[in-house]
Amino acid sequence: MDGVLKDKTMTTRKIRLAIMASGKGSNAEAIIKFSLKKEAAFEVVVIITNNPDAGVIEIAKKYSVVWECINFKSYINQSDATSRLIETIDKMKVEMIALAGYLQLIPEELINKFPNRILNIHPSLLPKYGGKGMYGLRVHKKVIENREQISGSSVHIVENEYDSGKILCQSRVKIEENELPMTLSEKVLQEEHIVYPLVLNEQSKQIISGL
Fold it and tell me: Which pTM value belongs to this model?
């Protein structure tokens, strides 16, 4: 009987995930939708944004997910904003973090607190077109300017240096002859919605199995 109860506990154990986003929140919504599936090994416990006008706030409300806006620009002392961010994450007992279009530098304290447990998805095939200032349509414009034939997205571990962490998964899309940055962005984003939740689920399983 003890063995049966233990197995049941293992199957119901879910990693407590925080999503950090600054924009519309389409990746956040894809992650939340996946978390509602029976096979999901994680649950979204909080959404954190730095943008008081972010569309992701409406996504949080739609799915009844706790959300918090921590706007670093409204703080004179950035360390106070960092403290509030970490307090929020601690309060929600977060075990893993997914960045989903979060346009704010991640504090070093947070990265050190969650080694190998903060993931990001970047709209290019890293190490190409990564680094400071390379986000959104800027990436896709540069890819097209350089006449690349293939682009895509990369899920990677977050380190202190932009887009430098271990790459966990990459998804590729073909660039058409007359491709525009916006159409390329849409194609890459569709792939992100599929790939990112799957990678988060696999990472969650690994964390659970290592407990």
Answer: 0.91
